[in-house]
Amino acid sequence: MQPSRALPPSCAHFVRPDRQALLEGRAGFADPTPVFVVGMPRSGSTLVEQIVASHSQAFGAGARAP
Asked: Where are the chain's structural domains?
C-alpha cells in the first residue's frame, strides 16, 4: 500500500489548488526556469543543492567561491 502524499488539512490552506497536484505527484512540471539555491555559509544550501542535483532532470553547478 502506498502512503498518502496528500497534504495534512492543517497545511492545505497554505497551498494554491493549482500547485497541490504538483506536491501530491499527480502532475508533471516542465518549466525550464532555473532555480538558484543560495545561502550563507553553514546554512545547509550545499545539502539542498545536492538533494536537488540527485534528481535525473536537475543539474547541480556547485558552490561559487566568494
From this structure: 9-53
